[in-house]
Amino acid sequence: QVQLVESGGGLVQAGGSLRLSCAASGRTFSSCAVGWFRQTPGKEREFVAAISWSGGVTDYADSVKGRFTISRDNAKNTVYLQMNSLKPEDTAVFYCAADPGLGLSWREYDYDYWGQGTQVTVSS
After folding, report:
1. Please, what sign has the CA dihedral across residues 5, 86, 12, 15?
2. Is 40 helix (H, G, I), strand (E, B) or coil?
3. CA-CA distance, 74 to 95, in Å (whole number)?
4. What is the pLDDT of residues 23-60, one digit of tens each?
5. At residue 91, what are phi and psi to the nearest 5 degrees?
6. Signed CA dihedral, 119, 71, 64, 103: sign only
7. Which residues touch 33 (CB under 8 Å, ≥6 apart)?
8. CB 71 within 8 A of CB 56
9. What DSSP string describes 81-97?
């Protein structure tokens, strides 16, 4: 069983930066692929970024490519999402998800374990 807790969200001005953290518990975390998703009221949850269990493979949504960086430190059981050059359209609740059976996935339904989310608000 993997438990995830997101943190690091908050209010930031456009052009600013935030680093989100996904802290995990469970021995299998280091074997989990991890994805970040976000959701805006009235819209479906969308893929943001993902990282393989080894950290050797990453994937990003086109909307964040070049601005966001996903990384992980398995020794600390933590995955990070560094967000730079934030835009108002990045405003959303960000969720961390993990699954030990995945190599890498952008599909929400591929993930079994989810955190509660952290709010990111970017002001113009």
Report:
1. positive
2. coil
3. 19
4. 998 777 778 899 999 999 899 999 999 999 888 899 99
5. -55, 125
6. negative
7. 50, 51, 52, 53, 98, 99, 100, 102, 103, 104, 105
8. no
9. EEE-S--GGG-EEEEEE
Residue found under tokens 């995990």: 24
Nearest to 96 by CA among 11, 39, 15: 39
pLDDT, tens only, 56-86: 899 999 999 999 999 999 889 999 999 999 9
Judging by beta carbons within 10 Å of its beta carbon (0-12, 13-18, 19+), is residue 15 exposed, middle or buried?
exposed
- Let me know: does 82 contact 66? Beta carbons within 8 Å: no
